[in-house]
Please model this.
Amino acid sequence: MEDVLHVYAQQYDKDFPVICMDESSIQLISEVIEPIPAVPGHLELLDDEYVRKGVVSIFLEVEPLGGKRQVKITERRTCTDLANFIKEMLEERYPDAEKVILIMDNLNTHNIASLYTAFPAEEARRLAERIEIHFTPKHGSWLNIAEIELSVLKRQCLAGRIDCIEKMRRKVAAWNTDRNNRQSTVDWQFRTDDARIKLKRLYPKL
Model:
């Protein structure tokens, strides 16, 4: 926990950007009966019945101090999907960074081995040398700012029923662009000193 909090306390450095990354799943849902649009005096009417159309995955990165984020919707949630997302981050969004400081939780695919699964060893090593991973502790994924950003995405963009992956990608892309244009940064207030007081039960008693 203190390791992650120490990273969050660092000043902004474009050569060593701090990026928080997380992933989640969401169902595609289709209507059985078309909703009745809202009119003055009445909200939109939705039928309770719906049809499940499968599950897609959300990969999200956010740079808390830079006010940038990137979201990708994929059909699967494998180590190869994660590795491709990391490669795109390094080569397309942060090509000039000397090293990306990456905050992730302890999901089994969140490791350097995923790069070796997806790419030849030489390429995997090249990518691995450009990232420095800091893991949130077990049961401490709330320390990952990307988890907060995922919550905002789902609340603002994915709250309704969406029946196909292409429609979801369009909605998410529009949300992503708007949020980046606003340069919505994250002001993280929870520091190491706070942790030692508020979470003192977690520390050994000497």
Summary: The chain has one domain: 2-197. The chain is about 35% helix and 20% strand. The domain at 2-197 is CATH 3.30.420.10 (Nucleotidyltransferase; domain 5).
